[in-house]
Amino acid sequence: VKSKRIVIKIGTNVLQQSNGKLDHKLIGE
Q: Quick one: average pLDDT of 2-24?
């Protein structure tokens, strides 16, 4: 269960980072 929670946390962090990069790209354009 703990390992699954860690994976979920990592997944959400990756999604947040990717969304931030997309936002920066849109703002840049």
A: 84
